Input
Amino acid sequence: MLEELPDLPYLPELPHRGPGADLIGRSALFLTDLHVDLQPAGWRLVSRPGHDERRGRDLLERDLDSFEEAAHDYVGPVKVQVAGPWTLAASLELTRGDKALADEGAVRDLSESLADGVAGHVADMRKRLPNASIIVAFDEPSLPAVVAGHIPTASGFSTLPRPEGWFAEQRLSTVLTGISAPAGVHCCAENPPITLVRKAGAAFVSLDFTLPFSVATMDEFGEAVEAGVGVIAGLVGTGGSGAGRQSGILSDVGRTVEPILSLWRRLGLAAEQLREVAVSPTCGLAGASPQAAIAAMRMCREAGNRLAEGDL
Output
């Protein structure tokens, strides 16, 4: 991380190590006074910590120790990431088998517990890396499906009701503004609810720019940029079938940055603002080989340098 992304390294997740290292399992570790256990259907909220939670905490502690050792004298921003409240609510089961999303009180408890736990995580990172500036990305891949009412029930025969707009914004705002660190939202799904994220207080949005944007989404993005919301642009392919995920894009920095340049020109945004855009992979690198992951990170750095030139 420190060698390939010296301007914005991040604490990596390595989910192939098993339960507790995955996005949902690791993120649940930050819940204060709430515990999880891995069931055949996925992670479930339980009354006391079990083997899977303890294993996850051990993996996290070892990761933090390793990162601290490598970055002890690092000066600059460091990104940490954790699943957001709506993705957790759509993924974690209650004891009776329904998703937490089905219970408004459970969603409220989750968001407040997550905010408290992530605030503690940020404080720990600051002690470990006293010269670093910690920023937090809340991963919300399920957010568009949540607000559209597309999350299936436990039976799979129906979908859970979508939350009221004010409640969706309020719960997201709880974690974004409650951790004493710049925080934003990463969403690699099509047509993310950017206005909701902006109103909830996100300092930045992290989006997949190789996916098609609807006219409404483009307008929401333009409003967010003009309002001062930062941008982390997912431009570098991570494998898969999408057009922006083809491996060939890693060989041409011009092709890599073209999606955001085209959008920037179409919206008439200022070149000066383009210089502040960071570049990331389109989504996670968990499915990539070590060589492919390194190549993707190097392309992120090259693409970021190209955008820093501010040349539209």
